[in-house]
Amino acid sequence: xxxxxxxGGGSWATALVKILTxxxxxxxxYLRRNEQVKHxxxxxxxxxxxxxxxxxxxxxxxxxxxxxxxERGQIVIFAVPSAAIxxxxxxxxxxxxxxxxVLSAMKGTVGANNEVPSSFISxxxxxxxxxxxxxxxxxxSEEIAASKLTYxxxxxxxxxxxxxxxxLFRRPYIKxxxxxxxxxxxxxxxxxxxxxxxxxxxxxxGYGDNFMAVLVSNAxxxxxxxxxxxxxxxxxxxxxxxAGDLLVTGYSNNSxxxxxxxxxxxxxxxxxxxxxxxxxxEGYHATQGLFGYANEKELNLPILxxxxxxxxxxxxxxTGFKKLEEKLI
Length: 329
Description:
2 domains, Rossmann fold, 11% strand, 15 helices
């Protein structure tokens, strides 16, 4: 029987483990903190993230030994914050991944080259592009936890890899769509978190639905500009893989990036906002990396630029949004 290895102990990793174990797939799960491992073994739930989810103990094997977890699985899922993937990869040898399929469940740029996670992992661990895929939404882990109807997107240049991975995640409440655009899906997943922060900032500043509609409409144009800078044989930007993920992140109260933006608008520093969230807001680090990528490609992205200047350029949020008002169309 095929076994899966999951690296990461957050809410997204927990949601994916829920699906896998419901499908009775033996799941080796690496969690950095030993207290999480002990609690999952004893109680069948992750005490830190989505604690309401009861996991099938017959198919879950938690461990704080990274190498052991990687070795056991024929399929490896990386679901750590993108800011941590370099450190994780530094502990691994490419020989561990011979004949394995890899799935990136991360949403941020990596390294000085501002790569999407799947490209970074492929390059560092010498994994062929045909054996590594990206999983994205539109979805929130909280709704997967509640078994609400969810659409997942799997993207790889190899259709056979997409087909084989899709089987792992299909459930009565999970529908899986596939495409061959991992680069586009990767950058779309990064940008939508930036829009989530902008949306939260706007809400916190007291802007209403009218402004929010304009903000999100302009964000669709910005995403289109980003995707146009990446190669693809065929891409439909209004597909739910791209636009749908952007919309749910911009509007949903489940979006941690949106909540992060609201906390910034309330006057909190980024550090305090992260502490109040109690979890990683991928859009915070993604803003910096994506801004660097946009500069390299000479892209005009007013929303991204505004969020970057507020978070990293010391511009006041009020000044930033007043300037943004004049740039939106």
